[in-house]
Fold this protein.
Amino acid sequence: MKNHDFRAQLHWLPCCEHWSQQIKDIENEEDDARAWLLFVALANTQLDFVQLNRVDRMLARRFGTNPPAGLATVPVRLAVVGSSTLGHLFPAIRLAGLRRGLWVTIYEGEYGQYVHELADPASDLYDFKPTAVLIALDAYHATRGLGASSSLAEADQAVDEMIDTLAGCWRSARHAKIDIIQQTILPSLPAVLGANEHRLPGSRARMVRKLNNRLREAADAEGVDLLAVDTVAADKGIRTWHDPTLWLRAKQDVSPLVSPTYGDLVGRLLAARQGRSFKCLVLDLDNTLWGGVIGDDGLDGIVIGQGSAMGEAFLDLQSYALALAKRGIILAVCSKNDEDNALAPFERHPDMLLRRSDIACFVANWDDKPSNIRRISQELNIGVDSIVFVDDNPFERNLVRAELPMVAVPEISEDPAFVVQAIADAGYFEGVTVTEEDRERTEQYQANAQRAKLHEQATDLSSYLASLEMQLSWKHFDDLGLSRITQLINKTNQFNLTTRRYSEEQVRALIGDANAVTLQLRLRDRFGDNGIIGILIGKLDGEDLVIDTWLMSCRVLKRRVEEASLLLLAEAARAKGAKRLIGDYIPTAKNGMVKDHYPRLGFGELESDAGGTRWAVALDDVRVEDVPMIFVKEL
Amino acid sequence: MNEAALYEKLNDMFRDFFSDDSISLQADTTANDIQGWDSLNHLNLLIAIESEFGFRFQTSEIERLTNVGDLVAAIQKKVEV
């Protein structure tokens, strides 16, 4: 078997074994929906930029400018603006979208005209109606305000001016409610002084470094996401990213050879903004989380811990998994083992970093892994397509890929030293914000498991719910909750009546809107705080309050929170003078569970067409029997 | 690599690059004969060739290429040395 080359483009994807055949299969597939799946599968193999080009053209020939019908994701319209040649990167960006089931349409800005295009509401850029803009500047352009003999004051001023220019661009885009991705500056310029380049005020290389530092502060302050090509190029080698001859020949700042990686970096940010980053890391045990086989080698025979290179390599993976868990990624175990054997290291091995309490769902048995991964997704109430599965065994990896193509299964080296690198480079868990709820996620899933146990003990549902001692606290949208509210709006797929996605800017605009009713709901019970679990947005239309958005976290299903929420909404609607509630159900591939949400709550059907169903209930007719929780208005 | 094998390899690359399985390269094939072979794609194509064969064209060499025959000759010079 070929050694795993972690320097290759997209090295975490399996090699494309049957390129010509797969191309033919797609050409011959008559059904569009099936062709789309074949495209997605092909995009999830390791393709170079020529192959990406080809698939991109086939995609355009097949579907033209419109996404195939019935896609579960929101189409992305991306405007790419900058100061160098960028078109050679577009196929890789579109294919990175395809890899995640996203349809990406790209508008290319006029060469070097980004300031004017973003400032002018009548420009072609705004005419394109982008949902996101990527601003990609090269080092030559970004440092053009600097002279070789500039003083320190002049150099500082050049940095300030560039940052001000960009901040102006961001504000224009934000005003138009467009998500913004700012590329950091690729540090392509040679040093003039050397290792102590920072002591030369007129150095353009120094200015690039300064700009990149300032960009990070400014982007955080302005709610802009960064495409950090500077750190990636530092990791992979700046000379593979930027080739001076290509810059001279074609003004390409980023080499086409690395476009597969570049495109994926963009694609994962776009996916993260749609809440489509992966959520759960499922780990195999033997020879993945420790060396050896616990069932054969026993507790004192497995390799884990300080003192040997192998033991430390496994420890590195555990430590990385733990760090992921701390920022909100759910950890699970899927192992072919007797459960007692599998649990022993977590409970009794002194060198294990991961403990049983870090694992939200622990499955060890002799069933096949695809079935067990499905089980994990059900127990945790998350989509199978939000799972990343790491296993050292190529047989298991291929089996899971074949049975569950929507699960991400990284190709990993047999050497455990490179496993963390593969997971990190793949960017599965790309995040754009860190909320308090993220940090507490594992505890919340743990508490859920405890609730399930209590449920088994309680004899009937109502006494079970009463025993939970639930407390539903609510408030209108506010600045504090903004990032979590936006996150939920963009990532909730199942319990989501309309699946409307809004940017943070759009959500912020609702806070002061007198015609809008907004609610953020938090649920606590005797096992802990579930965090913000429900978001409702209503818009006043005469005497009707139209429910624009109603979504809830699946963690709190079957606990009558829906009815409790209806009471709160009805009260807020009355306060605005409304007489009736109108609710829409817009079906997607994922929200079938709420098809009967409104009739269950006593709404009557108003109208129905292919786009969805509209329901209504007079506020006087809202009836909810005693809900098993107390209400608290949060300040 | 002999000339026939080189043509075959290039033909495969061109077919992928221009997404056109009807391409059949001859020595006198020029950019006018292949849809999509514009100046930017020309440069990207050369990068793909450089990467595939593991050498670099010099900037001056690129400017002298007028048809596929020139390209093949340039590659042969690099690969055989």
Remarks:
- The mean pLDDT of chain B is 87.
- The longest helix of chain B spans residues 3-18.
- The helical segments of chain B are 3-18, 39-53, 59-63, 68-80.
